Amino acid sequence: MFPAAFDYRAPTSLDETLSVLKQHGEAAKVMAGGQSLIPLLKLRFSRPELVVDIARLPGLNTIRRDDGHLAIGALVRHVDIAGSKELAKTAPMMVEAANWIADPLVRNRGTLVGSVCHADPAGDWGSVMLALSAEIVARSAASERVLHSSDFFKGPFETALKAEEVATEVRIPVRKGPSGGAYLKLERRVGDFATVAVAVQVELDGDKVASCGIGLTAVGPHNIKATEAERSLDGKEPTDQVIAEAARLAAEAAEPKDDLRGSAAYKKDVVRVFVQRGLKTAIARAKEVKA
Amino acid sequence: MKVTLTVNGSDRSGDVEPRVLLVDFLRTNLRLTGTHVGCDTSSCGACTVLIEGEPVKSCTVLAVQATGRSITTVEGLAQGANLSPIQIGFHEEHGLQCGFCTPGMMLVGTSLLERNPNPTEDEIRWAISGNICRCTGYMNIVKAIKHAAMLREAATATTREKAGAAPGGQ
Amino acid sequence: MATEVHMHGRIGESIKRKEDGRFIRGKGNYLDDIELPGMLHMAILRSPHAHARISSVDTAAASGMPGVIAVVTGELMAQHKLAWMPTLSYDTQAVLATDKVRFQGQEVAAVIAESKYQAEDARDAIMVDYDVLPAVISPQQAKEAGAALIRDDKENQKDNHIYHWEAGDQETTKAAFAKADKVVRLHTFYPRCHPAPLETCGCIADVNGATGKATIYMTSQAPHAIRTVFALVTGLPEQNIRVISPDIGGGFGNKVPVYPGYVVATAASLLIGRPVKWVEDRTENLISTGFARDFHMTGDLAVDKDGKMLALRVHLDSDNGAFFADAQPTKFKAGLFHIVTGSYDIPTAHVTADGYYTNKAPGGVAYRCSFRVTEASYLIERLVTNAAIELGMDQAEFRMKNFIQPEQFPYHSATGWVYDSGDYPKAMNVALEQLGYDELRKDVKARRKKGEVTGIGIASFTEVVGAGHGAEFDILGLRMFDSAELRVHPTGKAILRMGTKSQGQGHETTFAQIVTEELGIPAADVAVEEGDTDTAPYGLGTYASRSTPVAGAATAMVARKLRDKGRKIAAHLLEAAEEDLEWESGRFYVKGSPDKAKTIQEIAFAAYTNIPDGMEAGLEGVHYYDPPNMTYPFGTYAVVIDIDKGTGQVKVRRVVAVDDCGVRINPMIVEGQIHGGLAEGYGIAFMELITFDPEGNCIGSNFIDYLLPTAWETPRFELGETVTPSPHHPLGAKGVGESPTVGSPAAYVNAVMDALAPYGVTNIDMPVTSDKVWAALRAAGVNE
Ligand SMILES: Cc1cc2nc3c(=O)[nH]c(=O)nc-3n(C[C@H](O)[C@H](O)[C@H](O)COP(=O)(O)OP(=O)(O)OC[C@H]3O[C@@H](n4cnc5c(N)ncnc54)[C@H](O)[C@@H]3O)c2cc1C
Ligand code: FES
Ligand code: FES
Fold first, then answer.
1. How many domains would you assign to chain B?
2. What would you measure as the largest C-alpha separation in chain B, in angstroms?
């Protein structure tokens, strides 16, 4: 299987990239690591006239600590996240999640931002972004927008990005209180896309939950933020009962379909099990941070 | 479109359509056929090459993306007649049967040992988890990479010894 | 290397493989590595529908695209009488569809172009109009009244039934069942899976217009048989066909059949006068080439109150796809499935089988299995475990009680097999010991008390490999013998050629070792060549674990022939009587005076320089070996698993595999084969699946959904062995390549069933995926 023919540009500045995109609109496709785009090109599911390779843009491969958030550039790869000391400290759940993504070879090329822009409902990063309440920075020749992750995912492979926009970075808010997270993924085999995965992030205030984020993978048309489950924990002491109720609500938020990976009922139940386990792990980790 | 890159230490170039995959460029244009193709969904790792020392799937990289980069393929592992430790390891431990996955496995192993000279069994299995072998059941591949680690360790020990023993050595 | 000086490589020595050198340097010569001057590339257009009538094929746009040399359709093939070809099971198969498409992925047209990218571009531009017909996707549907008739091309075919086949004795079995205290039934489906070697199938056809010679490079496990089939299909004289199997990147049965692509590429090369390469991609491989299994089986086991097996009754419905193209011996429509009584002394048995056409890919092959033995072994071993659980007996104990005993060999089975040799209790004991079975049983009890879901599975399989004998076993009438030709050169080095073809099994090493054993020439001095039909002697190829049992025996026999001649030459050189000479590895010496000796190298030199009067010069020979019987490798596998109650995920904690494959020629290679097969067995048990939606769309036709195990989840195998030589094989060897895929799936699944037995679960069909286990757990009220 080989891609249909296309033109190729590899600009060396963001401005050049944005003007090329403006000029070509829907006919152009941005390529970062190519780990989702090239498979689609090979299947000829995607047939752009022009591929704009952003891999040579300067300054986009950094993880920066900015005012109140971490900024992860568009060229930061899964492997960079898996090995980041900064993230291991400030957002360890991301390190955990990075190791669940694809396989070591794909992790050496694929990017977090590319994955978020690809918006595969079975993609892992979307849930992580939702659980962490991340923001996505979108640049076009005309403007810069900052989109909250909960407004970003619109449908399968559909986001709020416009054709002429490039996502330059994602921003992860840095928590003040003690916090912990967990990424749990059920896959048929290592390297597989999720059957179900769950991202959980908890911030504690004393013995109570100050805030909580829960993202669900592969159980709907896009990654889902389990808002009701999150709210059910707010200000509460996370007893087994409270956790079980949050898990039940998260399972309710899931809208999976029957497929080769399992029945909808199965997937919903795994959401429940994983949210339950994830909350317990996240809370234990938050307590460790506190201690 | 012109592609210029370094392959196994030599400058190489070719004129290809942008859609040409790196694996096809290596196999067809450069006639380096040790890099194989085992699937069309980026799932098997038979096409593994190193770009700047890191293993990637060359079926999921366009040749044009590799412009200016340094590539290592299986053909670049041996130094002339001298096999590299990983090649010796695969031979000694029967780490290959049909040999189709072997170039990819050896390149991943090489890159792993560069980062982690003494990996555990779990670390090895994790590192090769993007490469499918249909023949060996992986047992001897793990042993082969361990064997290579041992050879490298022995080689550095000898170099260290030599350096220490050399008159006027630091 | 210093160690290799005394490592001659006799039988039993784990010498390193001779073939490794080229592979570790990236210098293997696989099919797709071959580039011929002027070579064109072919891409095949395949049916998107499982069942549809073709109303039109429009190639105009495609023909005009850049680089396109030709577009081949079924109509064009029909003009050359090549639209259909015979199958290995005496049926016909469409080469390119003319009337209907009968499975999704069926070959409809082909583009020949200057580059493979251009060939695919043009393939997209071929327009085909289809009238979609209802699809039949299971034997159950195939036999329903009013089911769509798939093979309306065959005059006398009025329904979708292909064959009915029986073995054993219906009457005595019925009588035994009448007297049984208990009958245990298992209905199980061994689903469709695929050998999926890492290298896909392909060929390069190079028909030389000037000489008329067709050289066909092909990923074939059986090049000689392919040559004959090609001669019959195309009408080309057989001496003008040369099939070359280069290095093969794994086969596992996938590379035995003749695929339509080979025929189209050859026809195209003939018409165009340039070499044509066709290499299928992975999707084509999984969607259209030799699948495996797809047997719906029901087994009834009759036992008495003491747990003695009395009789076995089995029925199976086989899903053969759109054309009956199984690669198997002529006589046996369901392969060697009637080995289904397995390792047990079951007095009587009756096996019935029915085959059906469905709208699925044809070409049932033995995925690392000797013609359907895997299905048989799976059924009996699953049934035996279920029976033990139902009887409240320990799985191991129940097996021990019913094993064929060592003194019963040669054992005549209820379905007509004559088992050559075996010691089943011994293999079982070695396995249990190595596993620490008694301790583990206690551990399982303790864990269960704590609420864990855990279990141990056992399978004690018997394989039947090494087909022939040729009078019983043939493929399209070709007797299943095999051959070896050995030429010892004047300097004492040798070349051995065989009719088999390695796909990673290490023939270049193993077969050289047989020569070492028999003639004393160091393995390093014996070149082994296979796969070129112009140079190698005729043979039926490598599959069904038959190379060592058949070609290995041929090698030993030809070496012995040369040794006999060598004795005459040595007698002449030593001026001694032949009877006074003793042979020890590599030399003849005069009895009583060991110093008076001639080495094989000296003898070889003399064979060309100094022979007795009247003797033919040279030291060469050929042997065609037709085995007197099959060989019967066996073993006991034991698996320990743990189940996650929350997700249903199964984790394999331990695998102990004790194999008895008779004499091991190169133990390192044997163990490598076992590792590989255990991993494939693991894949089959837990993840490998080709399945279909109700419209007949094939799901699992790429490596995203057809999952192969990686190093991460593949268990770490613990091997053990016993050695019971085959009494009729010249070296006592039995063959091993397939034992682990035959034995292990049942062991894995039995472990899961053992874990779920306390909850009353009696069966989960493979692949045992987490969702199925979860459903079973929740149905039994187990929750997290
Ligand atoms: C075998 C395999 C297994 C995988 N398994 C998983 C898995 O388990 N979990 C998982 O989450 N993912 C998985 N992936 C996908 C992988 O994570 C990809 O790396 C990721 O989805 C895309 O990142 P990329 O940089 O390669 O993006 P690309 O492929 O380059 O681009 C993907 C899409 O995003 C757009 N895009 C990329 N960057 C930007 C940007 N900065 N601004 C605007 N648009 C942009 C592109 O136009 C394209 O539409 C797998 C991929 C493969 C090949
Ligand atoms: S060929 Fe399979 S991953 Fe590249
Ligand atoms: S050795 Fe054959 S695929 Fe690995």
1. 2
2. 57
Within 10 angstroms of residue B34's Cβ, the number of other Cβ atoms is 27
Mean pLDDT calculated for residue range A217-244? 98
Distance (Å, rounded) from C-alpha A74 to C-alpha A171? 11
Region A114-128 average pLDDT: 98
Q: Which residues of B touch A (CB under 8 A)?
A: 1, 17-19, 21, 24, 40-43, 45, 48, 54-57, 59-62, 64-65, 67, 108, 126-131
Give the C-alpha separation, C758 to C779, whole Å. 13
CA of A262 to the centre of ligand 1 (A): 24
Report the CATH fold assignment for C295-467+629-779: Aldehyde Oxidoreductase; domain 4 (3.30.365)
Q: Are residues B35 and B101 in the same domain?
A: no
CATH-assigned architecture of domain C20-27+482-625: 2-Layer Sandwich (3.30)
- Please state, in angstroms and rounded to a whole number, the distance separating the CA atoms of residues B104 and B72: 11
Other beta carbons within 10 Å of C567 = 18
* Packed helices C424-435 and C395-402: angle between N→C axes, nearest 10 degrees: 160
Q: What is the pLDDT of residues C244-277, one digit of tens each?
A: 999 999 999 899 899 999 999 999 999 999 999 9
Same fold, C20-27+482-625 and C34-133+200-248+255-288: no
Residue B31 contacts C where some CB pair is shorter than 8 Å: yes
Between chains, do B57 and A53 touch, taking CB under 8 Å as contact?
Answer: no
Q: What are the DSSP calls for C427-450, one per residue?
A: HHHHHHHHHTHHHHHHHHHHHHHT
Q: How far is the CA of A109 from the centre of ligand 1 (A)?
A: 9
Test B125 with C33 for CB contact under 8 angstroms. Answer: no
Residues of chain C with pLDDT under 50: 1-7
Q: Which two tokens stand for residue A9?
A: 């540009």
Domain ranges of chain C: 20-27+482-625, 34-133+200-248+255-288, 295-467+629-779
Sequence-separated (6 or more) residues with CB below 8 Å from residue B151: B85, B88, B89
Closest CB to A108: pick one of B43, B55, B131. Answer: B55
- Report whether pLDDT(A134) > 50: yes
- Rounded distance between C-alpha atoms, residue C340 and residue C742, angstroms: 12
Give the CATH number of domain C34-133+200-248+255-288; options: 3.40.80.10, 2.40.30.170, 3.90.930.50, 3.90.1170.50: 3.90.1170.50
Judged by its nearest atom, the ligand closest to the C-alpha of residue C247 is 3
Instruction: Please say whether the dihedral angle defined by the alpha carbons of residues C475, C478, C482 and C486, taken in this order, is positive or negative.
Output: negative
Residue B105: give the domain boundaries. 85-163
Helix (H, G, I), strand (E, B) or coil at C645: coil
pTM above 0.95, yes or no: yes
Kindly state whether residue B55 falls inside one of the protein's structural domains: yes
Residue type for position C719 = L
On the question of a cis peptide bond just before residue C86, with omega within 30 degrees of 0, the verdict is: no
- Which ligand 1 atom lies nearest to the CA of residue A166? 42
pLDDT-derived band at B169 (thresholds 50, 70, 90) equals: very low
Give catalytic residues of C, as residue numbers: 221, 368-369, 738
**Alpha carbon distances (Å) from C294 to C12, C758, C765:** 38, 29, 12
Could you tell me the distance, in angstroms and rounded to a whole number, from the CA of residue A54 to the centre of ligand 2?
23
Q: What is the CATH number of the domain that holds B7?
A: 3.10.20.30
Are the C-beta atoms of A57 and A9 separated by less than 8 Å? no
Cβ contact A6–B18 (<8 Å)? yes
CB atoms near residue B52 (< 10 Å): 11
Mean pLDDT along residues B84-108: 98
Look at residue A159 and tell me whether its pLDDT is greater than 80: yes
- State the Cα–Cα distance between residues B133 and B135, nearest whole angstrom: 6
Structure ipTM over 0.95, yes or no: yes
Domains of chain A (ranges plus CATH)? Answer: 7-53 (3.30.43.10), 63-173 (3.30.465.10), 179-290 (3.30.390.50)
